[in-house]
From TrEMBL, chain A:
It comes from Streptomyces iconiensis. Residues 1-42 are annotated as: Disordered. This is Sugar ABC transporter permease. InterPro entries: ABC_transporter_permease (IPR051393), MetI-like (IPR000515), MetI-like_sf (IPR035906). It is a multi-pass membrane protein.
From TrEMBL, chain B:
The lineage of its organism: Bacteria, Bacillati, Actinomycetota, Actinomycetes, Kitasatosporales. The chain crosses the membrane at residues 74-98, 105-122, 142-161, 243-267. It is a multi-pass membrane protein. Signal peptide: none annotated. This is Carbohydrate ABC transporter permease. InterPro entries: MetI-like, MetI-like_sf. Belongs to the binding-protein-dependent transport system permease family. CDD domains: TM_PBP2. Residues 70-262 form the ABC transmembrane type-1 domain.
Amino acid sequence: MSASATRPAAGTRPAGTTDPVSPKDPTPAGRPPSPRRRARRGLPLRERLTSGAFLAPAVLLVGALLLAPFAATLWRSLFNDHRASGFAQLDNYRLFFTNEALVRSVENTLMWVAGTVLLPFVLGLAIACMTDATRWSRFARLCVVTPYALSGAAVAVVWNFVLTSDGALNQLLKTVGLDSLAHGWLLEWPSSTVVMILANAWQATGVAVILFLVGLQGIPPETLEAASLDGASPWQRFRHVVLPQLRPVSIIVIGMSLANGLKSFDLIWVLTQGGPGRATETLAVSMYQETFLLQHPGAGAAIAVVLTVIVLAASWLYLRRQLDAKGE
Amino acid sequence: MRTVPLGRILRNTTLILLALLWAVPTWLLVVNAMVPAAEYGGSPHWWPQGFGLLDNMRQAWDRAQLGPSMANSLLYAVTSSLVAILLATGAAFAAVVMPVRRRTLWFWLIYSGTLLPLQVFLRPLFLSYADFGLYDTQIGLVLVYAAIAVPFAFFIMRNYAMTLPREVVEAARMDGASWWRLFWRIHVPLSRSAMVAAFVFQFVSVWNDLLFGITLSTSRNIRPVMAALAELQGTYVSVGPPVVLGGAILVSLPTVVLFFSAQRFFVSSLKLTR
């Protein structure tokens, strides 16, 4: 879906195009203004007021409740948490190297990112490709998609039941004679973080399956037939025909999982509250913990800013496409 | 010659194992939520025993006051999604259809909100909500949920608006229709399917929210449903697993029903994010 390859000439719009990100205004600043652009400069005041009236409510709401708080958090992260809160430059950011809980939090966040990107992607792709139109395989698909309809808090309730010390998993292990494996899954790091990542994958794989199914439907059957005629094995067909055509969907799945993994809060908060002993916190949880429970708003603000930087860097996959579409 | 059937066997075995793996937690949830709370002996059940689901739900309803919180969440999810989608559709109309200068600036000004993690808004919102008397009020939560929903709804509505034919709008302008009239009479009816998709999406994300619920509200008659469920989970040991699981099913019913009845819209809202 590379927009640059198929971008129509400035100002024209081919009939019947369905590309939702095709550029509307591909004239970047710096180039000589097109006639259309020049015409716009002379917009009557009335027109401008009307378009302002359409834009203003959304801009004001986002500006007042999202962008202004963001600026306030940025600013606050430069002040320390002593009683007389003074300017502290980057002291709060230094905590990432000195504070044990934060170092652990960064480790956990990295584990979450790896787990939430890999598991739903691989499992979702496998399940979408392995199921076909038969009734029982549609049932198998349903089993995987259903948890996606649950909230993070509800998923936490379900998995607490499975993972708690006298829960279903330990019971099962004892029944089949693997007593030695049974332990407090949520009480010891790193098993605590690992099982929560698995619980998250249990929920998040459903949406990957749906997206990959949509992508698979978009593959023209002729390409697969042509590959079979040329004697390609099923694996070669998958590797060289299906996978490349799933690229746009893959980017969406990875981008979504990445953002969700970085922002995961509900599951951890309801299952362990980041404990025991702050061992299972991710950055999203640490921010809440420091700001509201430990009353370190400066440290909390710094964590939020670092999280933002990571999320923005991770969203680059998306952003680049968006910039592409804007013709810059 | 045996490779094809072998591959199929392998494929089906993997698929059955995966489906089982996924179904087991769901199965345990349903089975144990049905065990009457009084008969629960301390270890998980693997097969149904008795039918106490409705009674467990009622206990959860009473203990964690799920009733008021579900009503609140319904109010928040419906009003904030409606407000957000209306504002987003208007902004998308201006940004795509109307001759506006600095489209890119407007786009990023609104869209940027969805890229930032929610944590970055929490404390300033908490403090200013306390100052303005919005903390722990229904209007405060509706406002914040609407603000959170606007950027992504705008993104969906803008992408959709770009696929609409321009001829209709241009013809109507020639006939002297005002922008306002054009918006309500032509743009909104044309955008209805995308608006429904965005509504379903936003409804579910507001209903499932926990973070703002525990940060910006505290009273039992204000807080949204997931905050109530988190409290119910905190009483796991005293009320017993069947009641907590029953409560989890109860609060998930609206989104599960919506998800399966409107799966088409879910898929189309996901596709619109491309």
